[in-house]
């Protein structure tokens, strides 16, 4: 299911047909319909299939090896991948640090790091959150002392996606503890995870996977050339990256796919016959269509090469909270099958229930929690006191 507020041009329709055909012939059944991430080696296999096809980095310029697709082509590709149940690949390299290096990195950094991100030969993770400094990122305490052309890093990061499988981490560190503002004195640095002094400990999530990890730094020596942008200017770099991340969570096709799961399960269990359930499903369906309209408007803004600004925060709130409400309905529709971790059979094929419900509990936290996003909106849009 999907609802579009724009019509594909003839060229875009041909591209959509090509994407559908290629996915049908390339994506194996064992990689379809994952609520959590698939095993790392299978995710990397899929990454490399997309790279071979030339579609791994649709937004990247061609000069860096990307597809340089139009925004509408990018939306089409995301929609068809979501519709086919394609697995989530690691976004930290392609969607996050890659664009940041293009915007803020040196020529040497771009030449060194961008090619292996594309091929999947080097995997990246994000070192932002810390115990006591998650949503309030400016309170981070991991410090970097500058000595003899190096940063010596001590501290820890948490909720680091796939750190145990990654080769590099891009991290925020406090390089000037005496800066007048807590947002100042922070640097954005690239760290080789094979460097001595780094300890990575996986964390098992409520969904049963080990997607996250803690990363500990003890006297880790990093060349000062690995700082991206200016020393002590990492807050500006970090905010640019978070805008990419927040908008990346906003694809309405993910909501439509979750709604399809609800309808399949409700039809099989009989929940769809309950008038109260149908009323709430209809309300959520309408909210999803409204969100799709919001996304289409954002696409038009971006197509006009205008900044989305704080619209990304608004969309992040709405998209993730609607997704959680959809999964609440999914659990209710499943009834006594709601706690089963394996896929259950429906009249329209097997469907995962509990893993998706558990997976999306975190959606309103990552990329900046809903509470923090509301504070940003109240202050910067509405001008309310904080």
Helices and strands in order:
Blueprint lengths: L9 H17 L13 H14 L17 H13 L7 H14 L2 H13 L4 E4 L15 E5 L2 E8 L10 E7 L11 E7 L5 E6 L8 E12 L3 E2 L5 H15 L3 H18 L5 H29 L7 H24 L9 E3 L2 E3 L2 H6 L10 H11 L6
Parallel strand pairs: 1-4
Antiparallel strand pairs: 2-3, 3-7, 4-5, 5-8, 6-7, 9-10
Helix pairs in contact: 1-3, 3-7, 4-5, 4-6, 7-8, 7-9, 8-9, 9-11
What this model shows, in words?
- This protein has 386 residues and is of the alpha+beta class.
- It folds into three domains: 10-89, Acyl-CoA dehydrogenase/oxidase, N-terminal domain (Butyryl-Coa Dehydrogenase, subunit A, domain 1, Orthogonal Bundle), CATH 1.10.540; 124-232, Butyryl-CoA Dehydrogenase, subunit A, domain 2, CATH 2.40.110; 249-380, Butyryl-CoA Dehydrogenase, subunit A, domain 3 (Up-down Bundle).
- It is 45% helix and 15% strand.
- The protein is built from eleven helices and ten strands.
- The chain has helices at residues 10-26, 40-53, 71-83, 91-104, 107-119, 234-248, 252-269, 275-303, 311-334, 354-359, 370-380; strands spanning 124-127, 143-147, 150-157, 168-174, 186-192, 198-203, 212-223, 227-228, 344-346, 349-351.
- Strands 1-4-5-8 form a four-stranded mixed sheet.
- Strand 6 (198-203) and strand 7 form a beta hairpin.
- Helix 7 (252-269) runs parallel beside helix 9 (311-334) and helix 8 runs antiparallel to helix 9 (311-334).
- The longest helix is centred in the C-terminal third of the chain and has 29 residues, at 275-303.
- The radius of gyration is 21 Å and the shape is globular.
